[in-house]
Design brief:
By secondary structure, the chain is an alpha+beta fold. It has 4 domains: 2-94, no CATH class; 108-199, PAS domain (Beta-Lactamase, 2-Layer Sandwich); 204-274, Orthogonal Bundle (Helix Hairpins), CATH 1.10.287; 283-444, Heat Shock Protein 90 (2-Layer Sandwich), CATH 3.30.565.10. The protein has 13 helices and 13 strands. It has helices at 2-22, 28-60, 71-107, 126-132, 144-147, 151-159, 201-237, 242-274, 286-304, 325-342, 389-394, 401-411, 440-446, and strands spanning 111-115, 121-124, 166-169, 180-188, 192-199, 283-285, 310-315, 319-322, 348-355, 361-367, 415-421, 425-432, 437-439. It has a 5-stranded antiparallel sheet with strand order 2-1-5-4-3, with helices on both faces. The longest helix is centred in the N-terminal third of the chain and has 37 residues, at 71-107. It starts with a helix and ends with a helix. The mean pLDDT is 90. The structure holds adenosine-5'-diphosphate.
Length: 447
């Protein structure tokens, strides 16, 4: 500031000298005063012009390129320019941080919607847009209540108790393809709210499956237990002769055997679910596996009736399978035993192994049993699904056999296919991928 006053003074001094020299005819004082006044005006004009330049730049100018102004106003311009540059950098930094933050929320598997105090959408991520069928850009500033019209959500919003979530059907949900969303509002700031959504369809389905499973297991165990209890009571209360006692004990043993089979199959299933995938470097001889199943099948057939079944085995080529011998035996034996159990005695059961043209291996069991109506086929591998409960129980079935077979096939990267025509028998086939099948012959030749 002092420099500025000093400059004005210098200007006036210069004006006085010029005035004195320009008007030599005037009195000494007049020339001086005219020079000082003139110089002051000139100084003022220059100063105003510089100030005006600065003001114009501040109002409309490009903050990136400030005007070149010398002196006092130049210093102010410089200071303002630096302040503006710092502000821009700060803005850029916070914008970058905001973008990073929004990208993180975008990446969230949960839907996130920011609502203002009136319940209007301020921002939402792509997951929320998919959950609710929003358009992430177009629907900004729309009232959430107008877009999410489910009555459960409306009641939840109106009640104002946001200590829990609300579960509602998602858009496009149908009875054949249900979509369930869990929506939770979290109030923050002044009346604002963060709305989080989660697709809980799989969770709810798993929960329903778990409930069904527990109910089924309880039911399956309760039936033999009730029968056993009844026999125990009878034996306690009634005077029975030796042959009657023997008959009752044999029936009790059947029920105990039924429970044992159930527990065995349940343990097999839980082992399959909890263990790592079968190895790809443990090779099992197919002939050995099938011979074991055949022997067990013949025993079962003889147990069912003396006449037995016409059980045939057709193996093409000597092959090996990579996988778990216990699991593969369990799956193959299940199919052979089912064919024998459901085919009337005297019927034909053919067990086949062949390597297909694409290198995949196929193990199949064909029977001349009653066959299966097409509506049952898609559900046969569900746990405890049976077409004829009493027939299944009579033959010692648990309703878990095909679920185990499917699981084993999938764990070996294979699949289970079922072909059946009512009245003409069925064919159950396990297909294993080429990388788990190799020919024993070629291996020996190579060695
Ligand atoms: P289960 O222990 O009852 O045999 P599974 O899971 O092995 O249970 O089979 C499910 C149902 O599929 C059986 O209850 C039966 O109705 C039907 N099924 C299985 N194999 C055959 C077959 N070879 N022929 C006819 N029906 C079959």
């Amino acid at each position: 500031m002092l420099r500025r006053v000093f400059r004005l003074f210098l200007f006036q001094l210069l004006g006085a000298v010029v005035g004195y020299m320009l008007w030599p005819s005037a009195t000494y004082m007049q020339g001086l005063i005219a020079g000082i006044v003139g110089a002051s005006w000139v100084w003022l004009m220059i100063d105003l012009r510089r100030g005006h330049k600065l003001r114009r730049w501040l109002r409309t100018g490009d903050t990136g390129s400030p005007p070149r102004i010398p002196g006092y106003w130049g210093e102010i311009t410089d200071r303002v320019r630096r302040l503006l540059r710092d502000r821009d950098r700060l803005l850029r930094d916070s914008d970058a941080r905001l973008q990073e933050f929004l990208s993180a929320i975008q990446a969230s598997p949960n839907g996130v919607v920011l609502l203002d105090a009136e319940g209007r959408i301020e921002w939402c991520n792509q997951t929320a847009a998919e959950h609710f069928g929003f358009d992430a850009r177009r629907d900004v500033l729309q009232l959430i209540g107008n877009l999410v019209r489910d009555p459960a959500f409306a009641a939840y919003q109106a009640a104002g108790d946001f200590t829990h979530d609300v579960v509602m059907p998602g858009p496009g949900s149908s009875s054949s393809r249900p979509v369930r969303l869990s929506v939770h509002l979290h109030p923050y700031g002044e009346g604002r709210a963060l709305m989080m959504s989660r697709d809980v369809t799989a969770l709810e389905q798993a929960d329903a499956m778990r409930r069904d499973f527990v109910a089924n297991v309880s039911h399956e165990i309760r039936t033999p237990l009730t029968v056993l209890g009844g026999f125990v009571e009878t034996m306690q209360n009634l005077p029975l002769d030796a042959s009657e006692r023997q008959r009752y004990l044999s029936l009790m043993s059947q029920q105990a055997e039924r429970m044992q089979s159930l527990v065995r199959d349940l343990l097999t299933l839980s082992r399959l679910e909890g263990s790592p995938p079968p190895r790809t470097d443990e090779w099992i001889d197919v002939r050995g596996l099938i011979a074991q199943c055949e022997e067990e099948g013949r025993e079962l057939s003889m147990l069912m009736s003396e006449m037995g079944h016409n059980l045939q085995v057709e193996i093409t080529g000597d092959s090996e399978i990579a996988g778990s011998p216990v699991e593969l035996h369990s799956a193959m034996a299940n199919l052979v035993n089912n064919a024998i159990r459901y085919t009337p005695t005297g019927g034909k059961v053919v067990v086949r192994w062949r390597v297909l043209e694409d290198g995949n291996g196929e193990f199949s069991v064909t029977d001349t049993g009653p066959g299966i109506a097409p509506e049952h086929l898609p559900r046969l591998t569900e746990r405890f699904y049976r077409i004829d409960r009493s027939r299944s129980r009579e033959t010692g079935g648990t309703g878990l056999g095909l679920a185990i077979v499917k699981h084993v096939a999938q764990r070996h990267a294979g699949s289970l296919t079922i072909d059946s025509t009512p009245g003409h028998g069925s064919c159950f086939a396990i297909t294993l991928p080429a990388n788990r099948v190799r020919a024993v012959q070629s291996l020996k030749a190579a060695a």
